[in-house]
């Protein structure tokens, strides 16, 4: 599993927590702020192929 923000690999960035619970993957943003908005992608690869899911996150001030 590989997580990306705006097509850049997140890797072991301490800002993010990557969770895999029984095959369900999620990404947690620690202390989200204005600069955390963007396009997030989760990519899974194995010998059978590749799957991608992407979402756009907008951060708005109150």
UniProtKB/TrEMBL annotation:
GO cellular component, one term: myosin filament
Domain Ig-like, residue spans: 1-54
Lineage: superkingdom: Eukaryota
GO BP field: cell adhesion
Family matches, as Gene3D superfamilies: Immunoglobulins
UniProt cross-references to CDD domains, sorted A to Z: Ig
Keywords (A to Z) from UniProt: Cell adhesion, Muscle protein, Thick filament
Protein name as catalogued: Ig-like domain-containing protein
């Amino acid at each position: 599993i590989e997580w990306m923000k705006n097509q850049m690999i997140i890797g072991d960035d301490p800002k993010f927590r990557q969770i895999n619970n029984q095959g369900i993957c999620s990404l947690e943003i620690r202390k989200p702020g204005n600069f955390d908005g963007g396009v997030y992608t989760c990519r899974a690869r194995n010998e059978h192929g590749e799957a991608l899911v992407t979402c756009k996150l907008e951060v708005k001030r109150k």
